[in-house]
């Protein structure tokens, strides 16, 4: 009975996650932005920035971003599913990423048009729910 309950609970959580992703296109956008980062696709990251942010950065600033992180944290291994959290009044798309030597939080912000305002690796405590 306990196993059946756990199975049903896990299924409900999976359905909720799929439903949330289907209703919030920024969930998929966050994953895509991180994929661009993993693939060192600086131009695609830049192209997805909001016009406001594009005026403050150059595409070259995204080049080798993951390499710089891996020097400190070790090779990227995996990440957990994306979640939405409110941070300073804005929807933030967050997940935990596991590297060889440490875990880091991933945080992606978008504007109302779905353009990226920023992608950051942060201390995991900044995004973990208590």
List keywords for this structure.
5 strands, disordered N terminus, alpha+beta, Nuclear Transport Factor 2, Chain: A, five-stranded antiparallel β-sheet, 26% strand, globular, 130 residues, single chain
Describe this structure in words.
With 130 residues, this protein is α+β, with helices and mostly antiparallel strands. The chain has one domain (25-126): Roll (Nuclear Transport Factor 2, Chain: A). It has five helices and five strands. β4 (103-110) and β5 (116-122) form a beta hairpin. α1 crosses α2. It is globular. The two termini are 29 Å apart.
What is the topology?
Blueprint: H1 2-23, H2 25-38, H3 42-47, H4 51-54, H5 65-73, E1 76-79, E2 83-87, E3 90-99, E4 103-110, E5 116-122
Antiparallel strand pairs: 1-3, 2-3, 3-4, 4-5
Helix pairs in contact: 1-2
